[in-house]
Amino acid sequence: MLGIVRQKMLEQSLKKIRPAVSVLRSYSSAAKQMTVREALNSALDDEMSADSKVFLMGEEVGEYQGAYKITKGLLDKYGPERVLDTPITEAGFTGIAVGAAYYGVKPVVEFMTFNFSMQAIDHIINSAAKTNYMSSGRISVPIVFRGPNGAAAGVGAQHSQCYAAWYASCPGLKVLAPYSSEDARGLLKAGIRDPDPVVFLENELLYGESFPVSDEVLDSSFCLPIGKAKIERKGKDVTIAAYSKMVGYALKAAETLEKDGIDAEVINLRSIRPLDRSTINASVRKTNRLVTVEEAFPQHGVGAEICASIVEESFAYLDAPVERIAGADVPMPYAANLERMAVPQVEDIVRAAKRTCYRSVS
């Protein structure tokens, strides 16, 4: 029932929000289009077909085809032994999945929202993330925890928090945050194939967004490397580093900045842990300026970690202070006008980039 209600709310909200999440498409010559939802579904299908050890579990992933239809068609194709509907008990089914991973199978656990992963954080951190180290490398935990993360629309504080920094602070976990369909498909396949536990942070407002994909991306062997960022747009005046939905906002900001003669380089982080520090530092050494963008709370965030990396490795190259754009330091408001004020907007990124370039900000 919760999935049905949330999906209806999402469909209504997307009509208002879609212009804000549209992105610059001119950086790919690929003619084929694929939604993020289709990319995730096809990645699961590919990996389940290639490896009988891969199985799915979570609330409504089977009979209902997934709360967001990410698992659509997989129950019919692979059966109830590999697509398992669970009770509403994150602590219970996550513990079962981690125990199964100890024995060599590869669970993919869906949280209807990562806010609910708090019910299972003991299993994710203490049981999954630490076991390989505590067993001196004898026990691998090949498991993926996936689902929507961060702000949606009109669902309040208990459904809108970003957990990227939370999980990225924990040794033993790999944390991935896709933006485009290419990201979603390539990174999810990489996460399933990885021998370590992976936290896979999606964004439900991107599920219905279409992106160009090449034949290479559609190939069943396609896989992206974990820990490698992507330069979505090359530039020379300022670096904008972002992840998940904020990459689209950064690209829109870069379009606006270009009209004012500012050439912005946009980095899609893709991987939060491990973080591609070398790509970020190389970009900053070229542009001499940095703006970080994230939806999460500002204190102890991903942007703060990037800032520390730049200060440690590339401080002498900076021509301006680093600008950090983040969500407001408050629980997410429910009212639509306050919600918009609580998350970064394109104009916030534009103003920050202009400040780093010492341009006047209207």
Automatic annotation (TrEMBL):
Gene3D superfamilies listed in its UniProt record: 3.40.50.920, 3.40.50.970
Reaction it catalyzes: N(6)-[(R)-lipoyl]-L-lysyl-[protein] + pyruvate + H(+) = N(6)-[(R)-S(8)-acetyldihydrolipoyl]-L-lysyl-[protein] + CO2
Residues in Transketolase-like pyrimidine-binding domain copies: 34-209
The keyword Lyase belongs to this UniProt entry's keyword annotation: no
EC number assigned by the record: 1.2.4.1
Compartment(s) where it occurs, according to its Swiss-Prot or TrEMBL record: Mitochondrion matrix
Cofactor: thiamine diphosphate
Main localization, broad class: mitochondrion
Keywords: Metal-binding, Mitochondrion, Oxidoreductase, Potassium, Pyruvate, Thiamine pyrophosphate, Transit peptide
One function term, GO molecular function aspect: metal ion binding
Top EC category: oxidoreductase
InterPro entries documented for this protein: PDHB_mito-type (IPR027110), THDP-binding (IPR029061), Transketo_C/PFOR_II (IPR009014), Transketolase-like_Pyr-bd (IPR005475), Transketolase_C (IPR033248)
GO biological process: pyruvate decarboxylation to acetyl-CoA
Keyword Nucleus included in the entry's annotation: no
Top-rank taxon, per record: Eukaryota
Cellular component GO terms, alphabetical: mitochondrial matrix
Function: The pyruvate dehydrogenase complex catalyzes the overall conversion of pyruvate to acetyl-CoA and CO2.
NCBIfam families reported in the protein's UniProt record: PRK09212.1, PRK11892.1
Subunit structure: Tetramer of 2 alpha and 2 beta subunits.
Protein name in UniProt: Pyruvate dehydrogenase E1 component subunit beta
